[in-house]
C-alpha cells in the first residue's frame, strides 16, 4: 500500500483513513522514525529502545505507534512492543514521505476549507480562474496551486515524487492504449510522441521502457523549473515549453496530455495551441485522464473530481463533457480506450 492508496483508498477495498491515523503517521515521518528504525535493523522494539534510536520521548512514541498499529499500519506483537509491517517500513522511502508531506501541506487544508468555501459561494460549482479557488481560500494566498508548488524546490521535489509514485500505482497508459500502432505507423525519423506538460517524465518514460526507441523520437515538454528535476532516458529529448503558447513541434504524430487540472476555458486554450502543429487525418491528441460514469465510479476518480475542483476550479469529466470540450476546441473524439478495474482511460482526439 502507498500513501496515495491510504489517502484515496483502493478501488477494490476502500477505507477512509482517520485524522488520528494520519496525524500519527505524519509526526513519525517528521521524526524520520521509519528511516532510523530501518537503519537500526528493524525488528521488534519497545518504545524505550525506539526512543533512543529516534530521539523521541518513549511515552509519546508509544501513543503514536499505538494508533498506527491499531489501524493495521504497523504491528503490536507483544505488550509494549512494536514492529514495522510492509506499509510502515515503506515510509523509510523518500517517495512515500513526499506523499505524506504533500497530503498534509495541500490536500488536508483544502478539504478542511472546502465546506466553508462552498457555503460562502452559495453552494454553486466554482467557475472562477485557477487562482481564485478553495486552495487560495484555505492557504490565504494568491496564485495557482502550481505556482505555490514551484516556489519551493523542496515542495516541487515532493510533488514530482508524488506524481511518479501515483503513476506507478496505476496501470500505465501504455497498457491502456495500443502504443504498438503508434510505432508501426510512424516513419523511422519521425517524432512519435510529445508529452506536453509532462512533468518529470513518468508517462513518456513508460513509453520508452516499452518500446526502446532510438534517440530523438520521443519528447518531454514542461516549464524550465519542472524540467530541472527531470531525469528521463537519454533517448528522450527535453524541451522547455508552456502549453498556453503555440506548440512548436510540427512533425509529431501524437501529442500526449493530462487535462483534469484545468477548467474548461483553459483546457480549450491548451488544446487550441496544439492545432497548428497537427496534420489533419494523421496527428492525434491522447489524453490520459478519468472518464466519469453516471453510476459506479471508483473512489479514486470520485475523490479526484473534488480535489480538482478545490485546487484549480477544474474537474474530472464525463464522456459528454469530454465530447463538448473537444468540439469547442475544434476536435472530435475518435476512440476512448479503457481497461477493466482501471479508473483511468485514454481519450483519443483528431482535428474535426
Task: Please give the structural blueprint.
Elements lengths: L2 H6 L10 H12 L2 H7 L7 H8 L3 H13 L4 E4 L2 E3 L2 H5 L3 H27 L13 H6 L5 H6 L2 H16 L4 H4 L2 H7 L5 E6 L5 H10 L6 E5 L1 H4 L8 E5 L11 E6 L6 H9 L11 E9 L6 H14 L4 E2 H11 L1 E9 L2 E10 L1
Parallel strand pairs: 3-4, 3-6, 4-5, 6-7, 7-8
Antiparallel strand pairs: 1-2, 7-10, 9-10
Explain this structure.
- With 352 residues, this protein is an alpha/beta fold.
- It contains 17 helices and 10 strands.
- It has helices spanning 3-8, 19-30, 33-39, 47-54, 58-70, 86-90, 94-120, 134-139, 145-150, 153-168, 173-176, 179-185, 202-211, 224-227, 264-272, 299-312, 319-329; strands spanning 75-78, 81-83, 191-196, 218-222, 236-240, 252-257, 284-292, 317-318, 331-339, 342-351.
- Strands 3, 4, 5, 6, 7, 8, 9 and 10 form an 8-stranded mixed sheet that branches. The protein has a two-stranded antiparallel sheet with strand order 1-2.
- A hairpin with a 2-residue loop joins strand 1 and strand 2 (81-83).
- The relative contact order is 0.10.
- Mean pLDDT is 91; it is low at 7-15.
Amino acid at each position: 500500500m502507498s500513501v496515495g492508496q491510504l489517502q484515496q483508498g483502493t478501488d477494490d477495498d476502500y477505507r477512509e483513513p482517520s485524522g488520528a491515523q494520519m496525524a500519527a503517521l505524519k509526526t513519525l515521518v517528521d521524526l524520520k522514525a521509519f528511516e532510523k528504525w530501518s537503519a537500526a535493523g528493524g525488528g521488534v522494539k519497545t518504545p524505550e529502545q525506539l526512543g533512543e534510536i529516534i530521539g523521541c520521548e518513549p511515552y509519546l512514541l508509544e501513543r503514536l505507534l499505538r494508533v498506527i498499529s491499531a489501524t493495521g499500519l504497523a504491528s503490536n506483537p507483544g505488550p509494549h512492543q512494536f514492529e514495522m509491517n510492509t506499509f510502515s517500513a515503506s515510509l523509510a522511502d523518500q517517495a512515500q514521505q513526499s506523499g505524506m508531506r504533500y497530503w498534509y501541506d495541500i490536500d488536508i487544508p483544502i478539504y478542511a476549507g472546502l465546506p466553508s468555501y462552498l457555503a460562502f459561494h452559495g453552494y454553486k460549482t466554482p467557475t472562477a480562474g485557477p487562482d481564485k479557488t478553495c486552495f487560495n481560500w484555505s492557504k490565504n494566498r494568491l496564485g495557482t496551486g502550481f505556482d505555490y508548488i514551484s516556489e519551493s524546490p523542496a515542495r516541487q521535489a515532493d510533488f514530482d515524487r508524488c506524481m511518479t509514485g501515483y503513476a506507478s500505482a496505476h496501470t500505465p497508459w501504455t497498457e491502456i492504449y495500443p502504443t504498438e500502432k503508434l510505432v508501426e505507423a510512424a516513419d523511422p525519423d519521425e517524432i512519435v510522441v510529445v508529452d506536453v506538460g509532462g512533468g518529470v517524465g513518468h508517462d513518456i518514460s513508460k513509453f520508452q521502457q516499452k518500446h526502446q526507441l532510438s534517440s530523438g523520437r520521443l519528447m518531454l515538454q514542461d516549464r524550465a523549473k519542472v524540467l530541472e528535476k527531470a531525469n528521463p532516458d537519454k533517448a528522450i529529448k527535453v524541451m522547455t515549453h508552456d502549453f498556453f503558447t503555440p506548440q512548436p513541434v510540427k512533425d509529431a504524430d501524437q501529442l500526449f496530455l493530462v487535462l483534469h487540472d484545468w477548467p474548461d476555458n483553459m483546457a480549450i486554450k491548451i488544446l487550441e495551441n496544439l492545432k497548428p502543429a497537427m496534420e489533419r487525418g494523421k496527428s492525434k491528441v491522447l489524453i490520459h485522464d478519468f472518464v466519469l460514469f453516471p453510476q459506479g465510479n471508483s473512489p479514486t476518480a470520485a475523490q479526484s473530481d473534488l480535489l480538482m475542483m478545490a485546487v484549480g476550479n477544474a474537474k474530472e469529466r464525463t464522456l459528454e463533457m469530454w465530447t463538448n470540450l473537444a468540439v469547442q476546441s475544434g476536435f472530435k473524439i475518435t476512440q476512448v480506450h479503457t481497461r477493466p478495474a482501471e479508473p483511468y482511460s485514454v481519450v483519443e482526439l483528431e482535428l474535426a
